[in-house]
Design goal:
This protein has 254 residues and is mainly α. The protein has one domain (7-252). The protein contains 8 helices and no strands. It is globular. The N and C termini lie far apart (46 Å).
């Protein structure tokens, strides 16, 4: 049984395609190199729009510019909508995945500019850590140092679900002016919570690698290269944002 903490790469993603429908009539089967190339394209698209919104997000005084909310909330909501469409309409992923990357880039660029204005250099640190973790875990997975066993998958999925519940509760309580104490602060508990979330987000990459590899082995349709790249992007965006939170808490203590 396949599991992934990433909602885009859920248990039935490849299983519900069936074994006969895989090598498609319209262009062959999913390959690992193809998925890697698609991931690179999505990353490039994200960087392009992120760079644009970064330059537009802040005014000369370093404060958010008038259009800041458009880039941040428009990117966040648009990215969520496109992500949901991609999850439920996998065959549309060759179109929706690049659109998701472009829209998400606006959000990431805007929020990154704000973090960097408060904590100089934090964005470059978060980017380097994100890709460092990605390549380190990819090496560990390919070399067999980390194996995505069923118990490993179950543990990561359970932890991911727990984190999601905490965040949902935090958002819901926020509407009533109630904050969950400590976890969003820069104290030891807040830093410990962020560090835990970063670890779980990182381990989700291992599940994503395993899930994509399984799709390749099962000969999933060619469009699943885009879908697999999209799922990996979702985890990378989550990891990057959590690293920003962790680093900001650490720098707040200086």
């Amino acid at each position: 049984m396949m599991r992934s903490g990433n909602p885009a790469l859920k248990e039935s993603t490849f299983l519900d395609l069936g074994s006969g429908a895989v090598v498609s009539r319209d262009g062959g089967a999913m390959t690992l190199n193809g998925t890697i190339n698609k991931t690179g394209i999505l990353l490039l698209l994200t960087v392009l729009t992120a760079a644009f919104s970064w330059n537009q997000a802040l005014g000369p005084d370093g404060l958010p510019a008038p259009g800041f909310a458009v880039y941040m909330w428009g990117g966040a909501i648009g990215g969520l909508v496109l992500a949901l469409i991609t999850v439920f309409k996998k065959t549309w992923s060759p179109v929706t995945a690049p659109l998701y990357a472009l829209v998400e880039g606006f959000f990431l660029g805007a929020i990154s500019a704000v973090y960097n204005a408060q904590f100089g250099g934090i964005v470059m640190q978060a980017v380097m850590l994100t890709f460092g973790i990605l390549f380190a875990l990819l090496f560990a997975y390919r070399s067999g140092l980390i194996k995505a066993t069923e118990n490993f998958k179950l543990g990561v999925v359970a932890a991911t679900g727990g984190i999601a519940l905490v965040y949902l509760a935090s958002i819901a309580l926020g509407f009533f002016g109630i904050k969950i104490p400590l976890i969003h602060e820069s104290g030891l508990v807040g830093i410990g919570f962020s560090l835990f979330v970063v670890v779980i987000a990182s381990l989700n990459l291992v599940l994503d690698f395993d899930f994509i590899e399984t799709g390749v082995e099962q000969g999933a349709p060619k469009y699943m290269e885009w879908y697999g790249a999209f799922g990996l992007m979702v985890t990378l965006v989550w990891l990057y944002l959590e690293l920003l939170r962790l680093l900001s808490k650490l720098q707040s203590r200086d």
